[in-house]
């Protein structure tokens, strides 16, 4: 599939934003993190900012971005539409939670309930995003048991690392949170390796014969239907060289998993404010690594429509 940067940034930014929002809603609602004014303002601002930036970025891949609002009407049958509806609904409790935390300095009572509802909405929205791709049967690399859990794991992973950086920056960090970030990053790394192993051994059941419905021999094209690449080949027939795929996988692992784990391990030793530096670097490096991982998620996927073009 064609890895458009608008969609790559969308899945990375919204995943991190919703992960951070869910953690702030749960931990704030249960009074596990303090209702600090600046922590709430910066944390919720960063979470909602990432979500908004990602959603706006996704419209850049549309032929007519001004008609994006029409996608909301198909929520009965479209996971894309359900994602849009869920994202808008989530902004309501998230906004109330932010108002209560920032302007009233509290995270209990109705503010805590709003935070928990925002956390639920964030999880539901990430699930709908994952199902957009997991429901596509023509793309075997996505239509598997690894896609939806992967979206949830990566959202929790990037969100927790962002939360740790914020907590360390405002001197309310804890070793338990750092340990949780490291465990989630290890889980994300293991899940990504398992996904790659599954995709590399995947046997596509379709071929030119089954795609055309013609059996009894080998189907081959005598003449190509187009002299130049059309929309289908551009969007669904993207090809990446094997050597580039291997190198990019290595880069993704180093940036998204290895370096963040090492940087998080460093935060156990120094006191505040020195622990804030490696925590912030871990969040930045991991976000860059997830951009590479998401690019590969699209670039390595193969749509069965390319069988009609001999690929």
Feature tags:
311 residues; mainly alpha; Formate dehydrogenase/DMSO reductase fold
Name the overall outline.
globular
Assign the CATH topology.
Formate dehydrogenase/DMSO reductase fold
**Unreliable stretches:** none
Query: Treating each run of at least 4 consecutive H or I residues as one helix, how many helices?
Result: 10
Describe the overall structure.
The chain has a single domain (5-309), classed as Formate dehydrogenase/DMSO reductase fold (Up-down Bundle). It is built from ten helices and no strands. The chain has helices at residues 5-29, 37-58, 79-104, 110-134, 147-169, 175-200, 208-212, 231-236, 242-266, 276-299. It is globular. The protein starts with a helix and ends in a 12-residue tail after the last helix.
Give the topology.
Elements: H1 5-29, H2 37-58, H3 79-104, H4 110-134, H5 147-169, H6 175-200, H7 208-212, H8 231-236, H9 242-266, H10 276-299
Explain briefly what this protein structure is:
By secondary structure, the protein is mainly α. It has helices spanning 5-29, 37-58, 79-104, 110-134, 147-169, 175-200, 208-212, 231-236, 242-266, 276-299. Helix 2 (37-58) runs antiparallel to helix 3 (79-104), helix 3 runs antiparallel to helix 4 (110-134) and helix 9 packs antiparallel against helix 10.
């Amino acid at each position: 599939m064609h890895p458009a940067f608008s969609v790559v940034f969308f899945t990375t930014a919204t995943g991190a934003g919703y992960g951070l929002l869910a953690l702030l809603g749960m931990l704030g609602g249960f009074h596990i993190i303090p209702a600090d004014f600046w922590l709430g303002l910066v944390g919720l601002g960063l979470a909602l900012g990432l979500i908004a930036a990602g959603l706006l970025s996704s419209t850049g891949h549309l032929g007519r971005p001004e008609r994006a609002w029409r996608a909301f009407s198909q929520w009965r049958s479209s996971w894309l539409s359900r994602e849009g509806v869920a994202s808008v609904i989530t902004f309501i409790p998230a906004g109330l939670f932010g108002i209560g935390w920032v302007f009233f300095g509290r995270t209990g009572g109705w503010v805590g309930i709003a935070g928990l509802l925002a956390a639920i909405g964030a999880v539901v929205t990430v699930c709908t995003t994952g199902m957009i791709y997991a429901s596509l049967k023509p793309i075997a690399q996505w239509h598997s048991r690894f896609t939806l859990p992967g979206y949830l794991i990566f959202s929790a992973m990037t969100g927790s690392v962002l939360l740790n950086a914020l907590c360390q920056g405002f001197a309310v960090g804890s070793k338990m949170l750092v340990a949780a970030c490291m465990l989630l990053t290890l889980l994300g790394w293991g899940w990504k390796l398992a996904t790659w192993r599954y995709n590399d051994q995947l046997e596509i059941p379709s071929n030119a014969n089954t795609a055309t419905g013609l059996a009894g021999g080998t189907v081959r094209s005598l003449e190509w239907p187009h002299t130049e690449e059309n929309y289908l080949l551009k969007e669904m027939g993207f090809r990446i060289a094997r050597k580039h795929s291997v190198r990019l996988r290595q880069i993704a692992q180093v940036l998204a998993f290895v370096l963040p784990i090492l940087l998080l391990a460093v935060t156990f030793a120094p006191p505040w404010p020195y622990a804030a530096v490696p925590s912030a670097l871990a969040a930045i490096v991991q976000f860059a690594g997830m951009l590479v991982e998401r690019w590969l998620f699209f670039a390595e996927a193969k749509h069965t429509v390319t069988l009609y073009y001999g690929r």
